[in-house]
Amino acid sequence: MKYKRILLKLSGESLMGDQAFGIDNNRLATYAKQIKEIREAGVEVAIVIGGGNIFRGVQAEEGGMDRTHGDYMGMLATMINSMALQASLEAHGVQTRLQSAIDMKEIAEPFVRRRAVRHLEKGRVVIFGAGTGNPYFTTDTAASLRAIEIDAEVILKGTRVDGIYTSDPEKDPNAIKYDNISFDDVYGNGLKVMDMTAFTLCKENDLPIIVFDMDTPGNLRKVVEGLQVGTIVRN
Which of the residues in the chain have pLDDT under 70? Predict the structure, then answer.
């Protein structure tokens, strides 16, 4: 395997499958099987998952709700997804630990960097829930922050598209896919990979990002093996 320790970033929307809302159990099981496969191959796996399939802080603000209040609701949504993924992984025989940035001792450990690293070293999958624990920060930023804290070698951003394109491939049939692109070129071309805070954290800490299609079974293993799947962003 090319990578020994990775952080996998999943969007909450990816868990919906073909549904309009909530969690698709079949999609959850597909993800769990792929994660189990790379864990059994010796890769240390940490995961951050969004909450957009349940609730988004931005949507609350649009409805007149205080942004801070809405963001905390979004953090709780990430915990629901994290617990669902934990349950699915454990049903597939994968030892998993859930750590929360907000104190929820009945359902998750508090985030403690040293403890998280120890779990990874022991072969457990670690899921980081509740974002950074602070409003105004996205789960992309949480993923970048946690990846840096645990010394992950790469962030794998699993999406429904197979990489980064010159424009939105779902809208522009002439969009061209990048195999490799620098952080500076992503900035310069105005491409959307992560929010700016998350992206800058990765650039300044020389942490590469690979954007790939997680919905195609087998892609996750190909990425950690170093095969050309998706788009890699690096300095």
Answer: 57
